[in-house]
Amino acid sequence: MKLVFATHNQGKLKEMRDLLSDLNIEVVSADEAGVYEDVIEDGTTFKANALKKARFVGEQTGEWAVADDSGICIDALDGEPGVYSARWAGDRASVIDHTLAKMKKVPVKNRGAHFVSTLALFSPDGLYWIFEGQVSGHITLEPRGKNRPGLPYDLIFVPEGYDKTFAEMSDEQKNSLSHRGNAFAKLKIFLQNYNK
Asked: Is 69 considered catalytic here?
């Protein structure tokens, strides 16, 4: 089975390949499948954006397609940036600098946040399925760890029950408890059972 991941983000692609590595599935990026166009993410929910991307890539390639829309929702910022996580800082600003500046006066005890990941799986015959994952935690006072390409919020997010940011964790540890890892675990179970 070939699965086209509707992303140009190499960090997300690596995570997906790692998470599905023990299945007999070839995971390719949108670029590798010949889809270079970006879909305008104008949905107001993670589900709407994920489905729009998966449908677009699936219809362009005729293959199974999966898309992820994910983001961080920060309690002290009334749930922002949410679906705008990738682009709320503007083109020039670092999303990390922007986020920490907005939270400058927020005390440690009020820095709660959660990551959300919504996956849409789109089949060649037009059917689709939705898988969601979420992880709660808090925002640090400063960036910590090694930046993964395309995943800047890992530097400032500490999941509940841990004292390390995602960026300070190994890929394996992060994937075992992250929002995307949770959503992909559900997708993986579905794919394992789909043709049984």
From this structure: yes
At 1 the pLDDT is: 87
Average pLDDT along the chain: 92
The average pLDDT across 19-36 equals: 92
- Domain CATH number, residue 48: 3.90.950.10
Catalytic residue among 68, 69, 75, 163: 69
Give 169's contacts (C-beta < 8 A, 6+ positions apart).
Answer: 145, 162
Q: How far apart are CA 62 and CA 123, in angstroms?
A: 8
Q: Which residue range(s) make up the domain with 91?
A: 2-194
d(C-alpha 171, C-alpha 12), whole Å: 12
